[in-house]
Amino acid sequence: MLQLPRGYFAVQSDFENASKDTFVFRGVTYSVQEGVNLFGTILEAEEAVLTAGEPAPQSVLENLPYEAFSAPVLLFSTGVHRIDRYEFGGPRYLLGEGVGVNPNLPAEGTELPAFNPARTELERESVFYGGYSYGVLTVRKNEVTMVMIDGMTYQRTRFFDHRIAGDSESKMTFRNIVFTGESGHITNYFASPKRDSGIHREVRYENCRVEHYDDMEQGGVFLYPNARLTVLDGFCCNGTSQVFGFTDIARTRSNCTPNSDVTDLVIQNSYFRDLTGDHGISVNCHNAGERAVNLTVKDTVFYDACRKGESVLYPHLVNERCALRVSGCHFVDTRDNAAPAICVRGVGENIEITDCTVTGFAAELGKARMYPENAPAYIENYDKDWQTETEDAHTVIGTARADYTAMDSLYEGYRAYYGDQHCHTNCGGRSDGKFPMENWVEEMDKLDLDFAAIVDHRQMRGYFLPEWSEERFIIGTEPGSKLLNPSGDLKKETFHYNMLFPHKYGLAMLLANFPEFEFRGDELTGSFQYPPFTKERILELNDYILSIGGALMHAHPMALMGSTDPLDYYFGEHSHLEVMVGAYHGHRSFKSYDLWVKILNLGKHMFAAGGSDTHTNVTNACVSTFYAKERSGAEFLRRMRTGDYTAGAVGIRMCVDGAPMGSELAYRDGMILNIRVGDFFTHAFKPQTAYELRVYTDKGLAYASMFDGTEAQSVSLAVQKRAYYRAEIFDLTHGYRVAVGNPIWLDLAPLQEEQQQEA
Question: Whole-angstrom Cα distance, residue 366 to residue 249?
Fold first, then answer.
């Protein structure tokens, strides 16, 4: 029997039931010693490498496609290897059973490369398996000058290179990797280095395959590179609902590596099919200045590689040095796509497209609409009535006829307050926040935050501490649960929810009426469990909380639960869905907003909410705007219960015939919708930006007009027979919503009864 040579470290799956003195890798059995060169986890193997200070192997094992190794080698047996938060201690080779075996077989023309049979059976694979908040392979040390991962299958596993400073040339290679399953996070992330740092990366993905990769409706990005050179060679993507790359949904992440004069992104000899995430493959380089970002695409097939009606490639040519080079590629769309195959953003004209075929697109190349940075100070509002040219056309009542008296009287004596509807503190007990509660109010003042909903997990302790502020805090807690009887197919079955109360004994009352929480202890030391719930019990929970003056919110709705039925996220009438999640431009905010609109259009009355879900420092990154007469946690909760507030950074005041946001009233002919927007939260406002006020109904966009955000705006519309009206503010220049107002619902039943009687 062969002895496993020095420099090799074996990691055995199902360690408890496996041999402790032999290790089988690629059909060869090696003699090993437990705790020396045989381990049950990657963490134990890494600790042994660091402790022993082992050099690179002096020989190459049989059947390994390498001539030599320059660093220690970790070998992974077949089977599942649980990944927690593994950190590379230095240069490493991580080799799985599929080392050297390309998962993609050669294909002709525009045919999908078949999955190599040698890689199709998971029981014969070395599988990295992670989870929602773990499953991360991380690089933090500048000593990690190279990483080679070859022959693995990834499930819920990510790679993060966090380095931003120091002096390190790093070559990171991912070879013969199969990515499958789901991940709502960025799957491959390389942090943006500081401009004066010596962090220089070369990142390569060679002969990899993405197979039916699901983003769990969170809008995760498969690849966000920040390297001097990034190459995808022999890459096959066969279906993903993620944003593939290279930036995020709102295109806020730049691909211009700050410490490199030129950033090169190369895709070659590859195949992309059924990309259903947003904007195909997109590049952003808003901070390039005079530096260049080049996108080169060669000998690659794109087959339905974008959402319907969108382009496949979205390069950002922000200056004349940035370049796009496309050659020998095939662009195919079977859905009669009205968009061009390639859509260029920016002013640059450094474009070369040669020897490409385009089928099913409106054109080969097009230019994206660039929104002005200097919008008018006021929205359009003519003296005479006029009709909007929108999906759901409406009459705009001109300024000469518009009457805002009823709306202004609703908010007389009110001012705008800004706060966070989802926060965690360090108040002791079971709380998992990091920032001490006693320092919160002082820090909130620095950030111009008026209030915060404190929803520490599993306890009520915080409300009874001397540092609790009735003026600045809303009382709450955030439990979790498992959904027992979903209507749709579940990919993930747990969820979190925020319960908010008008007084500090509200939670105690609820726990007494819902014994499944199993509360034990007193106000300061007690805690409760997270019980599973049926949908019926969730509705009962919502009804009870409303009955005692509280509110129920589905927090970060798709982070922990994944269902094909939007109503599995619905917690009952006048409950709340967290639509702004963490940041206005974040993936989850886009996806949660889309979910909320689906729920509204199914006829449900559910309010929009927002929050940072901070567990660390106080933040003003995701505020909501409330109009109130006084700064009081109880008053803010009252406004929240009515739905008359804005999830976002701009105040929206709106009414139909004197009924504000969140109201429900019967439709009648001659109704008028009045809207005022203003009171922009200072820290969220961007100068030289075009904002747009949008008004939606259940039939679509009813009104849209652009302004620069510096002045308050007003608009008045003639109401039609619609299920609801709502307003939002969109940042056109940067591509994301900054404020979402709650609907005013119209009951059409009386009108329908009247029409039936007349008939």
Answer: 20
